[in-house]
């Protein structure tokens, strides 16, 4: 079966450099789950844990919570924050 | 389950998504009358009966809602019959809904009342265990005629629409209350009506440590009429720097200081002032007439959680996942809006500060949920369910007995912002298009842009906690996720 290079790249995923807590993180994009983003960030030395709350930074200046199973389409402009989920009152 | 009599007053509570659907159906802009049916869970509380709207059935114009034989319009018998069956199957009260013109005043017409007299006895027979009734809406007003199984008939006192902007509909605007000079300065902002609303409120606070003790003081000074304060703990010396109103003597330092023998320190800790008593002292100083329920106990016990089911609002300022689970369930199951507040000083393994922030997460029935946002972790719930001994044996978990950093100013940011949110919503100062967000404050972040983060919470219609087929508006039909005190 023949396929274009683009299709092959699509099938295997291409590496996209995103930001997690301002640090560069490479993920296999363009479609990736919240959990995969956190796992990639941890593997690449970002100081977070898998159960941190992940949010995507939106152009509006707001952020949007991304669940572990939620799939997001990332580009090289994608920025995420991950913060601890517990707090102390 | 038999609902024979009702505690008055009666109020109807409507979650935001359902309210939006109802309004766009009743008021599409054509000025005509439209109809619907609401199925509502019945919750009896000491403060009256709360009907929690769980199902909304929109009547199609010309099909289900047709020209009337006696009045202007009517619901068809087939539509009514099917809805009665739906309500019976789900254990809900049945309310037929229609709209009238007008804005701030609404009342049933003579035709409306005559149709209730004709039709409702038969509906009561068919529903058997629950009330039936009629509701009529204007753009800012609502009235209800509720028929009980015992043959009595009561009026609906208020319809409460929950959301970032809380709205209360009555048949007519309430008379202007008398001004209280104590609150002169603040009622210049939200009016004597707003002040009277605050005086009528019953607000729960779960946890009166660093954040909750400030919430308690703010609410009491604002003139909230009744507080229900829940906390199992007693004051320790290390609480004094951040628990509002606490004194060193509350911690009995002469007994608990490190050089005392073990048994004296234990005795001191056992005799120290409960945090709820400190909160009560603070609240009474601000307002001697305040209603104050000091509940020294754990919100995860059934009896303690039950004491919050008639609150108008709940502040969650406790650290545990279990407390989050219970309060989140109260929000959706009983339609009680809440907010989670807290602060975090995050350290890495070497003890270096990696992040500092305060959080405010408003929880709106059916909309924003700690479960949907993965802020309740099953693994941590299980871990908390272990005894301290079991926890010590499972050393792979972080040592929960080590106290995390906690600073009054971080808590104060969260507490003040959360109370401010509650206040603006409750006194009705919010714009119609107000969009609720979760908020984090990061004082150490380098760029100003990132110091205040506004977060859009996830929401999942299939969520068992906040979804319409889950706990939403289920009231007493579901058990809260609590431990039973029976037999203890
Ligand atoms: Zn009418
Ligand atoms: Zn949910």
Automatic annotation (TrEMBL), chain A:
Listed Pfam families: Multi_ubiq
Domain called Multi-ubiquitin: residue spans: 16-84
Domain of life: Bacteria
Protein name: Multi-ubiquitin domain-containing protein
Organism: Amycolatopsis mediterranei (strain S699)
From TrEMBL, chain B:
GO cellular component, one term: cytoplasm
An MF annotation (GO) of this entry: nucleotidyltransferase activity
Region described as Disordered: spans on this chain: 464-488
Domain THIF-type NAD/FAD binding fold: 183-463
UniProt xrefs under Pfam families: ThiF
InterPro entries: ThiF/MoeB/HesA (IPR045886), ThiF_NAD_FAD-bd (IPR000594), Ubiquitin-activating_enz (IPR035985)
Gene3D superfamilies registered for this protein in UniProt: NAD(P)-binding Rossmann-like Domain
UniProt xrefs under PANTHER family: ADENYLYLTRANSFERASE AND SULFURTRANSFERASE MOCS3 (PTHR10953:SF102), UBIQUITIN-ACTIVATING ENZYME E1 (PTHR10953)
Name the record gives this protein: UBA/ThiF-type NAD/FAD binding protein
